[in-house]
Amino acid sequence: MPPRSLGAFLKAARSALTAPASQRPKPLTIVVGNESADLDSLCSAILLAYFRSHTPPHNASVHVPLCNLDRGDLALRPELQAALSDSKSKSSSSSNLQGVPLDSLITLTELPDDLVAADTRWLLVDHNALTGDLAKRFQKSVVGCIDHHVDERVVPSLVEKGEYPRVIETCGSCASLVVDYAKDAWHQLAEQEPDEATDHILARLALAPILVDTSNLKNASKTADVDKQSVSVAESVLGTVGILEERSAFFDELSRLKNDLTQFTYRDILRKDYKQWQEKTSSYADLTAGFSSVVQGMGYLLDNIGDREALFNGLKKHAQERNLDIAAVMTVQHDEGGFARQLLLWAFNEQAVKATNAFIETYREKLDLKPWGDGLLDDMATEGEWRTCWTHGTQFSRKQVAPLLREAMKSV
Ligand SMILES: [Mn+2]
């Protein structure tokens, strides 16, 4: 059995991954979240890898929780550090509670170049189709998933019963589904090999994404029964069941860390929560669109991060580095003028302009698109390019808007 302590477990998993090819366990099971590498993806991967590694019959070799980001990007997630650190809760009686440092996590930077698909098994959390370089290298070795996105029908549906999970269910947070999947194993482990300090960190890792993704279980359109149940599971481990102040204090701390962008540059902010997709148009051209989700509004960015020119320079550089045809920025405004969401679209060539225009034509009403900021960020004049920023009148986040743009890209 791999070590019970989370810190030691991560060390063992890292050694298994980075060992010379001849000494690496075969096959090596890797658990990975989606490329936005948000709190939900990261915590879900750690939890699923940890619990499967400690549950017979999977515990013969350690599962590697892989953070789907480069090592340098860990620092963009102060809320993850808070989830990984000691509980400040008064109910934690033991004085030896130890947090886990952010840099003990395993990232794409550690993924060996000589790792081949045939020697690996991949379990996906918080997505159900690998993307980017991982897809090119390892798609055929995906064996299971636990996810709350639309089923892309890539994970084989006839996975060996009992061996690998294939769970796709709508709910607020993927971590809720992971906790639900692992809760019996967790109970058993806590009984057979008690380690309160480790269980507290695991419980905070479970609680953090669920609270963030459901707005402290208060967003009724996002919160499902499984989210509430998994919060109960985690809180019973923490000994805080029914103590709503503790829950709210943790949620407030996470929100504060997550929403404070003032220490970052546009370069940081645009890649902090980022996903991209490539689609084939009806004339068989490839179009790539990249979506940056931002937890503050466009006004906040222009006031706190940099002016219009700085935003354009940052976004153009971001797009060039990733060969994007379309760059999209989706923002959430909290303060200035009340809650709102903005969508900035920038098309960099004629085919891309066609796709974005098709998107607008088709979905203007559905999304209730209105020009933002008197057209401050718009550009209809540059030859072969097109850029507009809207406010949209729906609760749609990237999860709902990206599929619409992808459809429009395929249609032109
Ligand atoms: Mn998620």
TrEMBL record:
Keyword tags: Hydrolase, Manganese, Metal-binding
Tagged with keyword Manganese: yes
InterPro entries: DDH_dom (IPR001667), DHH_sf (IPR038763), DHHA2 (IPR004097), DHHA2_dom_sf (IPR038222)
EC number(s) from the headed UniProt entry: 3.6.1.11
A single MF term (Gene Ontology): exopolyphosphatase activity
Keyword Transcription regulation attached: no
Boundaries of every DHHA2 domain copy: 251-409
Top-rank taxon: Eukaryota
Protein name in the entry: Exopolyphosphatase
Gene: PPX1
Pfam families associated with the record: DHH, DHHA2
